[in-house]
């Protein structure tokens, strides 16, 4: 059967539109950080928000007001966590992963590759993606806290200030 009755379809349409508007509203209020590149907490919040929206739209047992309150709770918790992590380095260290060297001066860091479950072919792909043809031209490859790779080519200055928090 395609649907039970027209009222069910109208409910999904109405609640879907209102739920979507509420989610966009609260995400705009919470700021860009809520949906920035994901760390573990960002991922959890984003997936949970999608799950709540789907539940509100599809389940007749979840009222719109409860769904909106759930949005506010999750976005509020995300805001508090990011607010605390910006103001407390101890709190930030507790909840966020550290960046990891995967390659340094053209040499793979075997222990880091193994512990982070990254293959050499993924490193080479990141290097190619950075427009570098020779591994020897790579000063470092770093696995960032959001899971992305940063590829740093050798430069003439000798300074490595961008790698300060990786050591």
Automatic annotation (TrEMBL):
InterPro entries linked: DUF421 (IPR007353), UPF0702_alpha/beta_dom_sf (IPR023090), YetF_N (IPR048454)
Q: Which family does it belong to?
A: Belongs to the UPF0702 family.
Q: How does it sit in the membrane?
A: Multi-pass membrane protein
Q: Which organism is it from?
A: Pseudoalteromonas fuliginea
Q: Which residues cross the membrane?
A: 6-27, 39-58, 64-86
Entry keyword annotation includes Transmembrane helix: yes
- The residues covered by the YetF-like N-terminal transmembrane domain are 17-84
> In what residue span(s) does the YetF C-terminal domain sit?
87-156
> What name goes with this protein?
DUF421 domain-containing protein
Sorted UniProt keywords? Cell membrane, Membrane, Transmembrane, Transmembrane helix
GO CC terms of this entry: plasma membrane
List where in the cell it is found. Cell membrane
